[in-house]
Amino acid sequence: MRILVTGASGLLGLNLALEASRQHVVFGTVKEHALRTEAFSVHRVDLLTPGAIERLLEQTQPDWVIHCAALALVDACEANPALASQLNIEVPSQLARHVARGGARLVHISTDAVFDGQRGDYTEEDIPNPLSVYARTKLDGERAVSEADSRAIIARVNLFGWSLGGSRSLAEWFFSNLREKKQVMGFTDVLFCPLLANDLAQVLLKMLEKDLSGLYHAVGGRCLSKYEFGMALAHRFGFDQSLIAPTSVLDGGLKAARSPNLTLRTEKLVRALGEPLPEVFGGLERFYQQYLEGYHEKIQALSA
Questions:
Q1: Theoretical Cys-Cys bridge with 66: which of 7, 89, 107, 120, CB 3.0 to 4.6 Å?
Q2: What are phi and psi of 260, to 5 degrees?
Q3: At what angle do helices 280-292 and 197-209 cross, to 10 degrees?
Q4: Domain 2-167+193-222+263-281: assigned CATH number
């Protein structure tokens, strides 16, 4: 298959492009962060430029499109809601319309943060209630994609892994600070179900292989607090667990509101794939093995 991955310099986009390139012809878009790799073809493009999406699809002729590009920094969205709307609503809407017209299959990446986190254990049928500009624009992006392309897959995700700059995921944040023996906070009252980016990449490819469509929760098969996540990572890497202070998110000094309980149900996707989803502790073990193999250094060396 010919696969187009937008946002190929991001945490998910880069790991996904590398995973997919083992078996497929992959094209990855970047805007500011140039990449130096032979694993896939890199296209530098600003998706906001008029006509850029049409030209990109014409150049790459993809069978599958996985749209990872977004303004995903929560506080950046709060600071610039107009840009967040452009990148998280308008771009995916245009992309979905042109992909549908050309007959390719689309996966649009969304987020678990569309829920307010007051209850948790959410299914795809539950009504979202986003708390931040980021979450609101991502939810509106979901709706725009589904209206433009009824066959599109919309995947709500939460992930961790090694990134180009070494600082895009919670796992990297814990790793970097604990390695330097710095005291950090671990939120005991924020629950999530993260997947290793590489595991999520394989799940997304399987969803396309199964020819799925519609909304799915593509998160880990096990949920935990961010404090527990940090403690598990510290244990696996042999870091001092006492450096992680159990803290309430209310005392974290965050600018934008965060949803406390983002536990999501995944039975719909499990049934569709016919197999269980990966879980966080297996992902953390693979994250550790990637470190031992120098994967994080290989990722960062791709920065041109």
A1: 107
A2: -75, -40
A3: 120
A4: 3.40.50.720
The identity of residue 26, as a single letter, is V
Per-residue pLDDT reduced to its tens digit, 235-294: 999 999 999 999 998 887 776 677 899 999 999 999 999 999 999 999 999 999 999 999
Alpha helices (H) along the chain:
11-20, 52-60, 74-79, 81-85, 91-102, 133-148, 170-179, 197-209, 226-237, 267-273, 280-292, 295-300
Q: Which residues of 125-149 are buried (b: 16+ CB within 10 A; e: fewer)?
A: eeebebbbbbbbbbbbbbebbbebb
Decide if 131 contacts 34 (C-beta within 8 A): no
Cβ-proximal residues to 118 (8 Å cutoff; 6+ apart), any chain: 129, 259, 260, 261
For 19, counting Cβ atoms within 10 Å of its Cβ (0-12 exposed, 13-18 middle, 19+ buried), the class is buried
Cα 100–chain centre separation:
23
69 token code pair: 């590009």
The answer to whether residues 258 and 190 touch, using CB atoms and an 8 Å cutoff, is yes
Domain ranges of the chain: 2-167+193-222+263-281
What is the maximum alpha-carbon separation in the chain? 55
Pull the structure tokens for residue 269. 């996707």
